[in-house]
Amino acid sequence: MKALVMAHHTPPLLLMLLLCTGSSSFQPALVIEMAKILSENYCFPENLVGMQEAIQQAINRGEIQQISDRKTLASVLTNRVQAALNDPRLIVSYEPNAVPVMPQKQPSLPTEQLIRLVRNSVKLDILDNNVGYLRMDRVIGEETAAKLGSLLRDNIWDKVANTSSLILDLRYSTAGEMSGVPFIISYFSDAETLIHVDSVYDRPSNITKELWTMPSIKMVRYGKKKDLIVLTSKRTMGAAEAVAYALKNLKRAITVGERSAGGSVKVEKIRIPQSDFYITVPVARSVSPITGHSWEVSGIPPTINVIAKEAVAKAKSLLAVRGAIPKVVQSIADIIERFYAFTDRVPALLEHLKYTDFSTVVSEEDLVVTLNQDLQTVSEDPRLMIKYMPDNTEDEDPAFDNVPEDFDSLKVLVDTTIKVEILSNNTGLSPH
Ligand SMILES: *[C@@H]1O[C@H](CO)[C@@H](O)[C@H](O)[C@H]1NC(C)=O
Ligand SMILES: *[C@@H]1O[C@H](CO)[C@@H](O)[C@H](O)[C@H]1NC(C)=O
Ligand SMILES: *[C@@H]1O[C@H](CO)[C@@H](O)[C@H](O)[C@H]1NC(C)=O
To answer: Residue 198: beta bridge partners?
Structure first.
């Protein structure tokens, strides 16, 4: 009991406890080695206090020593570690027949193979209305990108830059390198404002690397103004998630599709010394400076949820809606200028419209809500109102039944996708 109490305080005492209570069995030694691996490799070192308590409790209750079946032991340890650290990626396995694989750095491929790899993983189409469609099945790392610089620029990035809007398809992107993330975000940003995109903490080296957009890249940027839709599926994983997460949270892209897989920056399977047990450990983690959170494990919920198969069609219709925004806004500005009764408020309204943020507008209804909020705040006039009327629907909105009779309504057909209706006081419309 004394040993138990003391063991609560420091790891060396935990070690003594384990050795005392189970010196004849292999389990305590295994657990100690496992704890050591975690303390040197697990990317949330601040959480490890809980792990030690969980191990201790299991030992104290004699559970660990009683389990002689190694596979059962592996699954018990997995449960304990997962519960203590609340991380489903931690897995203890017993693999007596595993062929040991030396963790090694990927050898750099010869240029020809790199070219083939890129050809097979990046595909560009130009769709109707000069909409670009870029399917990227892997995020190309910095090193490869440097080697293939002009090839990628001429065949991909310069062609993309000429499109009016882009669908970036990451639905099949299951591989790639984090080092490629800053380039992609840079391409879709301006050079003037550098953005801190991600912070990646690597536990074994105890180094946090900040990923920032780059002041200069070797190609014409897409910039931050043109519409960008990112497609994700439940298979989208790893570096592609880092790309989608950053673009979404920077409000640079609207994401369409399914919640992404929730992968990891880096997971390693490490052999527990002197045993046939392994422990799978996430050794690095990503934290977004924008959200303070990560795409890891939980994945990224899309802005617009549709099954992956329907994502392209949805993206196209979204781009059509978004493509109409400038024209709609211009028409509204014209109408306000010509008809709005409170002429003193007109300049402020027009000025405000110029700077309204439409980056997250995904539907006609959205656009109308955004505009109404803006216009009503600036004008302090709840009757200044825009209404969306889909084709073939009569005025069924009960809110409009309450509009007093003496307010005329002005219906304006802006284009085939959006109709706006501006309600205005009679005085504003009287045709003198
Ligand atoms: C992009 O457009 C410009 C101007 O229209 C043109 O000069 C250039 O060749 C185009 N680039 C590509 C890669 O299509
Ligand atoms: C990791 O580095 C920080 C300083 O950047 C230091 O305070 C900390 O003790 C280091 N942790 C380990 C386990 O080496
Ligand atoms: C609306 O018009 C009525 C008369 O038609 C007028 O009395 C009223 O002041 C106007 N309201 C505004 C806000 O201009």
So the answer is: 211
Same domain, 301 and 325: no
Give the domain CATH number at 378: 3.30.750.44
Is 117's pLDDT higher than 70?
A: yes
Same domain, 32 and 69: yes
Nearest to 242 by CA among 208, 265, 213: 265
Number of the ligand 1 atom closest to the C-alpha atom of 158:
13
Find the 341 Cα to ligand 3 centroid distance in Å. 9
**Among 17, 93, 92, CA closest to 62:** 17
Amino acid at residue number 107: P
Distance 425 CA to ligand 3 centre (A): 6
Task: Supply the residue whose CA is at minimum distance from atom 7 of ligand 1.
Answer: 162
Q: Which of 57-66, 229-238, 275-284, 396-405 has the lowest mean pLDDT?
A: 396-405
Residue 176 included in any domain = yes
**Domain residues for 200?**
111-268+281-305
> Do 325 and 399 fall within a single domain?
yes
pTM over 0.70: yes
Residue 15 has pLDDT above 80, yes or no: no
220 lines ligand 1 (CB under 6 A): no
Residues 175 and 139: their CA atoms lie apart, in Å, by 7
Amino acid, single-letter form, for residue 398: P
Question: For residue range 124-137, what is the model confidence (pLDDT) as tens digits?
Answer: 999 999 999 999 99
Tokens 């303390």 label which residue?
A: 39
Give a yes or no: residue 106 inside a domain: no
Mutate to test the pocket of ligand 1, among 154, 156, 162, 164 (most ligand atoms within 8 A of CB): 162
Distance 162 CA to ligand 1 centre (A): 6
- Ligand 3, residue 342: give the atom nearest the CA: 14
- Give me the phi and psi of 131, to 5 degrees please: -85, 125
Does residue 424's CB lie within 6 angstroms of at least one atom of ligand 3? Answer: no
Range with the poorest average pLDDT among 10-24, 223-237, 309-323: 10-24
